[in-house]
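no rush on this but wanted to send it before i forget. theres a chain ive been looking at and ive put its sequence and its fold in token form underneath. please have a look and point out which stretches look like helix strand or loop to you. thanks a lot i owe you, the record is right below:
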Amino acid sequence: MTLSAVVLTRNEEKHILDCLASVRSFADELLVFDSQSTDRTVELAQTAGARVESRPFDNYAGQRNASLEAARGDWVFFIDADERADEAVGGEIKGEIARIESEKSDTSLFWIPRKNYIFGKWIQYTGWSPDYQPRVMRKGRAHFDPARPVHELVIAEGSAIYLASPLVHYNYETLAQFRKKQAHYTRFEAQQMVQAGIRPRLRSYVSMPVREFARRFISLEGYRDGLHGLLLSALMAYYAFWRQVWAVEMWRMKS
């Protein structure tokens, strides 16, 4: 059985070579699925021996499903450009595939943990660890839910397993990068609230941020990440507040 490593890209010249190098030893195919990059991503990927396909970006679920169809392997391993695998990850993936094939198991999905580096530090608590992600799929037996354009949800026929070896994820390098991505996610979450018919109450402007901070810093032991844990807990509380604000604005626009 063959394994395709798939990387979704848009302007990832900073990361693409190291990402591809991290999977080269165990992937039978390297597929870079590009969203019209304007930098050297495509050129570098081709130089590294990857097959490059291009598709205009609509949403993450759509892009991943299209790349899943384009992959030639029997199994597909999704890895983001800012993530790195190693021999342990590759060995565990290949070993589990071999076991599943020999046992004729119905397993069609692997979840892989990530070690997230935020602002240069490995965040071991605060809700960012072990951060399991659905990353290995048996082609034809799993796909991404098109109704979930971000925070993708995998629909799989058969069972799933959780691997032990983690990917390394260089998540956010700067505060500006963090704020841009969280604002995007928070607006989407506010939209989901509106679609579900949830109207924020006045007290939620205070209660939701307080609960989010307590969850991150105390329940999820963010204090053990030191000042990074304190900052990240405060930032996530800040966006919990803005989720209520943006949801109210969306309700007003809707009415």
The helical segments are 16-23, 41-47, 60-70, 87-103, 175-195, 204-219, 226-254.
